[in-house]
Amino acid sequence: MQDNTTPAVDPQEKLKEQAQEGVKQNAYYMKKAIDSDNFTEALQFAAGMINELRTHLLSPKTYYEIYMQVCDELRVLEDFLIQESKKRPLYEMYQVVQFCSNALPRLYLMITVGSAYIRSKDLPAKYILNDLLDFSKAIQHPLKGLFVRDYLSRMTKSKLPDKGNEYENEGDGTKQSVIFILENFIEMNKLWVRMQDQVPSHLKEQREKERQDIKLLVGTNLVRISQLDGVDIEMYSQVVLPKILDQVVNCRDRLAQQYLMEVLIQVFPDEMHVETLSPYLEACTKLVPEVSINGLFVAMADRLSKFSKNISPQQLENSEIFDTFITHVDKLIKSGSDGQRKFDLKEILNLQASLLNFAIQCFPNRSNYVDLVLAASI
Questions:
Q1: How far apart are CA 26 and CA 51, in angstroms?
Q2: How many of the other CB atoms lie within 10 Å of CB of 200?
Q3: What share of the chain has pLDDT > 90, as a percent?
Q4: Which of 312, 284, 319 is nearest to 298 (CA)?
Q5: Are the C-beta atoms of residues 303 and 264 closer than 8 Å to each other?
Q6: Which of 112, 292, 348, 368 is deepest in the core (most CB within 10 A)?
Q7: 316: closest CA among 348, 270, 349, 368?
Q8: What's the CA gap between 200 and 130, in Å, rounded?
Q9: Helix or strand or coil: residue 22?
Q10: Minimum mean pLDDT range among 2-6, 85-89, 156-160, 241-245
Q11: pTM of the prediction?
């Protein structure tokens, strides 16, 4: 017997198709306006395209797909604005887009014009970056605000003042960029965490999976900082790491803490980890109990054991990294015995095995280090 049952249509797929069609149509008319050299109409249709991102009906993953489609089309608009600046000053265009009636399209258009404004070098980049950062506070909806700030990060990544680049206007250009990225990162993480808080308890697990889908938006900020040439060990230890650790510890969110502490290990150079090992491990002990702290300790130990092969034994001894590790491992294990955290035997053994391997690889002539690791296991 033939089954004539119509397969169920995924509501998200239907909503995605409608949004994609809306973006496509507005992008078509925006490009026609650009070809006709019609600045006003180009902005109107660009705003209509961005309006597809005002919805609250899309899942984060689907929203991301529409967002990327919009980003691709806005690059065309930015190139047009650069050409248009030969006839109309960019500061005037920057003011014009601020009259857009809806906050979300206004922010996307301001960032697009602002990006072109920085490229023109008519005004030092720091003033435009700070202005865009302030205006971005207008979007407090967690998902929409998160993507607006990602667009800000995406559009400015190649235009940040840095040591020796074309946008460095003063001696502390890199520091200005670091502060800009850190402020944007802090707000993005807050919005990402709020996504979890704004659903009923029976949807918590689903929302955490949705947040997993877009975690790269938040973590990319740390990548941006690591790519700045002017970020040295001093700036990392005194400015970058303290701000990041403060935000991570105080957000009290398992997913954010686990992910961001892992990203820190992955994206910054080994030399910086050696110099800042103690504050990093100390912050680990302050994370919520659900975070796999032993996994973070193991990852850091494994990375530094590989790095140790590239430096002299004397440098390794002077770094005191083994003492730092054993102190914090001991503190971590004691927190388990005090009932502050729950560790099963396997986790403790993995942690001790990693530290033992670290001691043997990095300090093959210091048998007393092995004894200290084994003593901490008792």
A1: 10
A2: 7
A3: 70
A4: 284
A5: no
A6: 112
A7: 270
A8: 36
A9: helix
A10: 2-6
A11: 0.92
Question: Three-state secondary structure along 175-218?
Answer: HHHHHHHHHHHHHHHHHHHHHHHCCCHHHHHHHHHHHHHCHHHH
Type of residue numbered 197:
D
Amino acid in the structure at residue 76:
V
- φ, ψ at 113 (rounded to 5°): -65, -40
Q: Are 333 and 376 in contact (CB under 8 A)?
A: yes
Q: Report the pLDDT value the prediction gives residue 152, as an integer from 0 to 100.
A: 98
Distance (Å, rounded) from C-alpha 377 to C-alpha 371? 10
Q: Yes or no: say if 287 and 261 are a contact pair by the CB < 8 Å rule.
A: yes
- Distance from C-alpha of 205 to C-alpha of 209, rounded to nearest angstrom: 7
Give the separation between CA 352 and CA 239, rounded to whole angstroms: 32
Please give the Cα distance from 89 to 272 (Å, whole number).
44
Which of 215, 294, 297, 202 is CA-nearest to residue 253? 215
Q: Are 15 and 29 in contact (CB under 8 A)?
A: no
Question: Which residue has 């607006």 as its token pair?
Answer: 148
Q: Cβ-count burial of 364 within 10 angstroms (0-12 exposed, 13-18 middle, 19+ buried)? A: exposed
- Say if CB 241 and CB 284 are below 8 A apart: no
Q: Which of 304, 315, 276 shows the shortest CA–CA distance to 361?
A: 304
Above 90 in pLDDT, residue 369? no
CB 33 within 8 A of CB 73: no
Strands, E, within 31-100: which ranges?
Answer: none
Is the CA virtual torsion 191, 195, 197, 198 positive or negative?
positive
Query: What would you measure as the largest C-alpha separation in the chain, in angstroms?
Result: 81
